[in-house]
Amino acid sequence: MPEIVYEDNHLLVTIKAPNTLTQSDNTGDESLHEMCKAYIKEKYKKPGEVYLGLVHRLDRPVGGLVAFARTSKAASRLSEQLRSHHMEREYLAVVQGSELPKEASLHDWLEKDEATGNVRVVKSGKAGAQEAKLRYRVLACHPEDDTALVHVRLQTGRKHQIRVQLANSGHPIVHDMRYGKGVRGESIALWGAVLRFDHPTQKMPMCFLSQPKASAFQAYAPEIKAFLEQQETSSHQ
């Protein structure tokens, strides 16, 4: 059963568990998209194929908030909000290295290796490379284990973007098997914690929050609680 945080006739907002696919791929593993379609079909006794529009994705290892559209009108309007950056996706991450700027912008060009699926930073203007931008601010540091908790705001949405850009800056995400020093059995310390957009038909601002569940976040529980409370308060102002 998917963890549903909001649903109406146009929207379904859920939390993707770490190491679950957002949508099906050639592995044949069940995806969050399939789970949510099955949930709707059973709950509402829908005959035939269920429509559920995929608006955005999270990398397979990453957990957090995902919004689906239950109508084609909602899918179109939410996709436009994503393209225009009106939909805001914000993340919490625990990174290696406690000495980093309190706030910074990362601006890189990314290239995907089709053979391995890995993404790497390349020189600007290289043919086929995609521009990638994000901003982060440090919420807390633990010098004793040389880690930091950061709040990340995406300005573009590229494959593996946060993981690659932070690793390239010298601060890979804790337990990232692909771009850092992963530990088998431990979930990556990256979580889709905040999702903001306007309701596709009612136009009202919506804000969803999610508590990170990966073990690396436990050491930062007070700071995460304060951050989410601040987001909750600001969403009602």
Helix content: 10-25%
User: How large a portion of the residues is in β-strands, by DSSP E?
Assistant: 25-35%
Series of secondary-structure elements, N-terminal to C-terminal: EEHEEHEEEEEHEEH
What is the 3D form? globular
- Helical segment count: 4
In short:
This protein has 237 residues and is α+β, with helices and mostly antiparallel strands.
Describe the protein.
- This protein is 20% helix and 33% strand.
- It has helices at residues 32-43, 72-83, 161-168, 221-235, and strands spanning 3-7, 11-16, 53-54, 63-69, 88-96, 103-112, 119-122, 130-142, 147-154, 190-198, 205-209.
- Strands 1, 2, 3, 4, 5, 6, 7, 8, 9, 10 and 11 form an eleven-stranded mixed sheet that branches.
- The radius of gyration is 18 Å and the shape is globular.
- 37% of the residues are buried.
- The mean pLDDT is 95.
Sequence-ordered SSE layout with sheet pairings:
Elements (H helix, E strand, L loop, with lengths): L2 E5 L3 E6 L15 H12 L9 E2 L8 E7 L2 H12 L4 E9 L6 E10 L6 E4 L7 E13 L4 E8 L6 H8 L21 E9 L6 E5 L11 H15 L2
Parallel strand pairs: 4-10
Antiparallel strand pairs: 1-2, 2-4, 3-4, 5-9, 5-10, 6-7, 6-8, 8-9, 10-11
